[in-house]
Write a structure and sequence with these properties.
Oligomer: single chain
Number of strands: 0
Structural class: mainly alpha
Largest sheet: none
Radius of gyration: 16 Å
Distance between the termini: 45 Å
Shape: flat
Length: 88
């Protein structure tokens, strides 16, 4: 397994997670018809990205999953730290 490929894929997985989170938050503010269409398109894009990563190599797939899996808890932790700093 190529460590550099796994690391780069982890960073890409993290970026995909944060981009998807922002997109879904934005779509939730739209009308129901536009929201459903946007979520369907977002899902298709995510499937294409994940499929492409899975075909690339085992280290790329593992790195992508690692990055996408670690980002949500780290993102929540960062947001909580900002709230605590603002309250002080």
């Amino acid at each position: 397994m190529n460590a550099l490929t796994a690391l780069a894929s982890a960073a890409f997985g993290s970026t995909v997670y944060l981009t998807t989170l922002s997109t879904v938050r934005w779509l939730n503010q739209l009308a129901p018809h536009a929201k459903v269409t946007g979520l369907m398109v977002t899902g298709m894009v995510l499937c294409a990205v994940i499929g492409t990563i899975a075909v690339a190599s085992q280290s790329a797939a593992l790195g992508f999953i690692l990055g996408a899996g670690l980002t949500p808890p780290v993102h929540r932790w960062i947001l909580q730290r900002r709230r605590h700093a603002a309250d002080s």
